[in-house]
Amino acid sequence: MGVIEAIILGIIQGLTEFLPVSSSGHLELAKFILGDDALPKESLTFTIVLHFATALSTLLIFRKEVLQIFKGLFQFSWNTETKFSLKIVISMLPAVIVGLLFEEQLEYFFSGQILLVGCMLLITALLLVLADKAKTSSVQTSYASSLWIGVAQAIAMLPGISRSGATISTSVLLKIDRTQAARFSFLMVVPLIVGKIAKDILGGELSVDNAEMFPMFIGFIAAFLSGLLACKWMLALVKKSKLYYFSGYCVVVGIIAIVYALSH
Predict the structure, then answer these.
(1) Burial of 262 (0-12, 13-18, 19+ CB in 10 A)
(2) What DSSP string describes 118-152?
(3) CA-to-CA distance for 71 and 67, rounded, in angstroms?
(4) pTM passes above 0.85
(5) Cβ contacts of residue 187 below 8 Å, gap of 6+?
(6) Domain of 148?
(7) What contacts 217, CB < 8 A, 6 or more positions away?
């Protein structure tokens, strides 16, 4: 993989991680168009590294909230921060279970499955339309809703299903406050990505050829910087209920992917 390709993929990841158009789906489409011939495991490794970059941008954007959570946890009392952390843990469980039990199947999905990506983008479009039509509410995230949002996140492990789109849409359909829904969506994925990186490093699975180190680093930086911009943009869009813009985009890209896959 060259430096230019890494920059392109990094920018795509940074923008689409927070915008509800499926970062994993766009990465698979971009790698296919750019002629990426990496093995599924190597391709997935690059995807994970880019996700780690956007996780760091999330931590930077929400640094005040994260610090408050840690301060609350170290008070060792049943306070607001402790309850929020428990909800984050609950939301992680479905994705952790799916990731552990179906790791090989997930690797297969990250090997140029363009037809799958196209079909899943259409599902993402439907979710965004439903969320935009939902009435604004001020309901807080509960333990039960955390689990349902976690299920949406687990389903979004399929390339083409937008993680932010699925989790925010599920939250809004559960009548959770839109701003809180976006905040919860962005924070809930950080422990998963960090955990995945740690697991692969400790297990010796996150090995990269020396020739790929520099392009991967450049891609990381590109994803981090573009992620900072996209995160702030998405927070404003969710608050203003403008998700249907991205629904139309997902339909167009999804149909193009499906037509291309069926004609080749």
Answers:
(1) exposed
(2) HHHHHHHHHHHHHHHHSPP--BPP-HHHHHHHHHH
(3) 6
(4) no
(5) 58, 62, 65, 66, 88
(6) 3-263
(7) none
Cβ proximity of 177 and 137 under 8 Å: yes
Transcribe 11-67 into DSSP letters: HHHHHHHHTTS-HHHHHHHHHHHTT----HHHHHHHHHHHHHHHHHHHHHHTHHHHH
Tens-digit pLDDT profile for residues 98-155: 888 887 777 776 666 788 889 999 999 998 888 888 777 778 889 999 999 999 999 9
How far is Cα 219 from Cα 46, in angstroms, rounded to an integer? 9
Q: 34 phi and psi, to 5 degrees?
A: -80, -5
Residue with tokens 């039960």: 144
Residues in CB range of 264: below 8 A, 6 or more apart: none
Domain total for the chain? 1
The answer to whether 94 and 150 have CB atoms below 8 angstroms apart is yes
Residue 168 contacts by C-beta under 8 Å, 6 or more apart in sequence?
20, 131, 178, 181, 182, 185, 238, 243
Per-residue pLDDT tens digits for 30-54: 777 777 655 445 566 777 788 889 8
